[in-house]
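Journal club prep — side note

Before the paper discussion, L.F. wants everyone to see what a predicted structure for a comparable chain looks like in token form. Sequence:
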Amino acid sequence: MLAGMSDFAMLSSDDLVTGEAVALDLPAASVAARIGSGLLDVMALGVVAFGVLFLALVASIDTDGALQHVALVGSLMAVFLVYPTTVETLTRGKSLGKWVLGLRVVRDDGGTITAQQAFVRALVAVPEIYALSGGPAFFSCLVSPRGKRLGDYAAGTYVVRDRVALRLPPPVPMPPALAEWAGRADLRTPPVGLALAMRQYLSRLATLDPASRQRIGAMLADRLAEYVAPPPPPGTQSWDFLAAVSAARRDRDLERLHRDESLRSRLVERDR
């Protein structure tokens, strides 16, 4: 059982984490899938490049050579930098090829990529994929555990398979004896690793032997105590303390989401 304690102590490198710190194992995309999506993206980029360069040529045909040069450089920047950055940012990590093959770019921590990360990926892709025919990207994907190309390393991203059926465990119930205390307690947000360890511990509570249940529960409760005030009533079992905090955080998050949704609905109705 001691060997299993590491499962509660850290996140797997391939885990995505939801707001309730539930690890979702979205496997990294295979090299073959990335090659397929890359080829589709290159074809799409070729169509965009043809259209942009044609428009730039038509717009600058009667100008001098300097302006034609500026139009060419601007067109290349729009094709190789602006276009892929905009697409991946607006689609939350997808492109035509990734959409067709069910892939998505995410941050290393599993979150949605930012415009800056999309730009870094596009910038590194110029020498990595287009100038060197994708050779560095191919070999980087082969040796990387997550199939990351050089642009992913520079941006702090990787590509996952997005079309994976996920089944979440049922939410942790609130211990009735701690409901009143949890409703008044000040709950600061714990680190993601600790929140995930709590969730995993509570979901496996019935399978742990009494000694391990007590030992691991006490360890997690000690770590969580610095994020909770006031402490739970004397005599509270560690697993009840963890369950109460987890349930209270979930309920407060749901209340906040409902308030935000209600506010958005009122604003939309007012603007009509």
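L.F.'s comment for the group: Strands lie at 15-17, 23-25, 103-107, 157-161, 186-187, 228-229. Keep this in mind when we get to the figures.
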